[in-house]
Amino acid sequence: MRNIIGFIDRIAEWSGKILGWLIIPLVLGLVYEVFARYLFHAPTVWAYEVTYMLYGSIFMLGAAYTLYKQAHIRTDILYNKWTARRKGIIDAVLYLCLFFPGIFFFLILGWDYASHSWAIGETSDSSPWRQPIYPFKMVLPVCAFLLLVQGVSEFLKALYSARQGRAYES
């Protein structure tokens, strides 16, 4: 079990570190647009769409890394007062009953949404650049898949806590 958790956690950590590098083109695109618009009075047609696609990709694809780091929002009023065993039981039940069905549904719908976009070669209608947006829409099923995989790791950690009565430590 430790090997499976470690492998999955390394995937989340690796994906989070790779995604962090997308901040550089995001910032460069924004800086370029600001200088072009306000210094040279020559706004671009591409900067807005590139930056919202990069930001959306960072936000969505970073969700598995955020789950790995336990940084998603949680109501801790009661949770922090519970024993590790109770936390593990509650977490395991919630992963089974809510998380996995929701993420699986998100994966199926995201795949349908993205594959349709790829099939028709969808492009943006919001600018004269008309860049392809099907790669951007592929972020949805990839995000769902990464979350599903990381959810398996978190579920196994919850099972460990429920059985052992202490939190999982890597």
Core attributes:
170 residues, mainly alpha, elongated
Q: Any overview of this molecule?
A:
- The protein is an all-alpha fold.
- The protein has one domain.
- Helix content is 75%, strand content 0%.
- The protein contains eight helices and no strands.
- It has helices at 2-20, 23-39, 47-61, 63-68, 76-79, 84-120, 134-137, 139-164.
- α1 packs antiparallel against α8 and α2 packs antiparallel against α3.
- It is elongated and about 65 Å long.
- It starts with a helix and ends in a 6-residue tail after the last helix.
- 19% of the residues are buried.
- The model has no long low-confidence stretch (mean pLDDT 93).
Could you provide a short overview of the structure?
This protein has 170 residues and is mainly α.
Number of strands: 0
Helical percentage: over 70%
Q: Cα-atom Rg, whole angstroms? A: 20 Å
How far from one another are the termini? 11 Å
**String of helices and strands:** HHHHHHHH
Shape type: elongated
Q: Please indicate the count of domains.
A: 1
Average of the residue pLDDT scores? 93
Compute the number of helices.
Answer: 8
Strand content: under 5%
The biggest beta sheet is recorded as:
none
* Strand-pairing-aware structural class: mainly alpha
Low-confidence runs (pLDDT<50, min 5 residues)? none
